[in-house]
Every structure is written in structure tokens, then in C-alpha cells.
Amino acid sequence: MVWIVVGVIVIAAIGPLFWLLPSKRDRLLSELRTEARHSGLAVEVTRVPKIDASAEERVSSGGAAREATIECAAYRLALPKRLPHAPRWLLFKSGRENRYLPGWTTLAPPTGLPATPQAYWQAVGALIDSVPGGCVAVEAAVRHISWYGRERVDGAAATEVVAGIRDCLTALGELHRALNEVPEDDPE
């Protein structure tokens, strides 16, 4: 009987320590984020609007409006210099149709698009449609290109997922550097 009491006391004392150990998902996220930082990407936990939210996610049972968001990670590639004349947009993966890319939508119209945007959007679509990791949004800004996602590896190694994200962001950055040529009538 004494051994049973001692066993219960030991389990009660040591048991909570196991709750402090990281889960398999926590270890995976740590590995992904560490790999991203080593490859030159900034990592931030953030929220983005949930475009395809249901009515229950947008309005409470009491009639109060809710802001439907998705908690995700942002992997950002800082651009070497500002690109004020390059296109700027934030695309969300969605079932909604838009005039830019099938399967993607925006909340605000893109700015700084080239005179003939069809080829530009085809190039962007080819890059972002295959980006790994559970992508929910992609952003092109003056100072950075960002990937927003749920950080899923789907059986791949963390290095492969991060390399795919980095390659996509780098290619978008190169595309935007090429489009950032200063117009001839601009005195900059």
C-alpha cells in the first residue's frame, strides 16, 4: 500500500512537467521558423482577414459584428531597396472570382500595375499557385514581399518548404525590381 501512495505522489509531482514539453506541432513550427530565419526571411505571427468566412463567423448570435480572421505566420523577404514604382497588392487565396487571378482575390485594388497587366498577372500566378506551406495570402509592398500561411509541411522536410517559400518570394522580388524602373518624366 505504501508503494502505491508513493507512486501516486511521484506521478502527481512529475506529471505536470510533461505538459511543459513541446508537442510535435510546436517542434515542427520551431524548426520551420528557425530554418526561415537562417535563409534570410523575417518571421512574424499575425492575422489576416478570412475572406470566405461563414455567416456565423461574421455575426454573433446576438447580432454583433465579428471580424473573421485567420491566425497565421508571415514570412517576409526584405527587398534590398525601396521599390516605389513596382506593383503593390495583397492577394488572398479564395474561392471568390476576381479579374486578376483565378483562385485569389483582393480587398483593395492593386496599385502600380504595368500598362499591360495580363503578362504580369500570369507570371505572378505561376509563382504563387505552387508555393508550399499552406499559403493563405501573398503581399507585394514597397519594402518587402510576404507569404502568409498556416505553416504546413504535408510530409516534406522543413528545409524544402522554406526553400519553396523563399524561392517564390525571391522570384516575385526580381519581377518587381524589373518593373520598378523610374519613369522618364519622374525627376528621381
Name the shape in a single word: elongated
Question: How far apart are the termini?
Answer: 86 Å
Unreliable stretches: 184-188
The share of residues in helices is 25-40%
Q: What is the count of helical runs?
A: 5
Rounded to an integer in angstroms, the radius of gyration calculated over CA atoms is 22 Å
Structure, described:
By secondary structure, the protein is an alpha+beta fold. The protein has one domain (22-179). The protein is 38% helix and 20% strand. The protein contains five helices and six strands; from the N terminus they run H-H-E-H-E-E-E-H-E-E-H. Strands 1-2-6-5-3-4 form a six-stranded antiparallel β-sheet. The longest helix has 22 residues, at 158-179.
Briefly characterize the structure.
Helix content is 38%, strand content 20%. By secondary structure, it is α+β, with helices and mostly antiparallel strands.
Strand and helix map with partners:
Layout: H1 2-19, H2 24-38, E1 42-49, H3 55-58, E2 69-78, E3 89-93, E4 104-105, H4 117-128, E5 135-140, E6 144-149, H5 158-179
Antiparallel strand pairs: 1-2, 2-6, 3-4, 3-5, 5-6
Helix pairs in contact: 2-5, 4-5
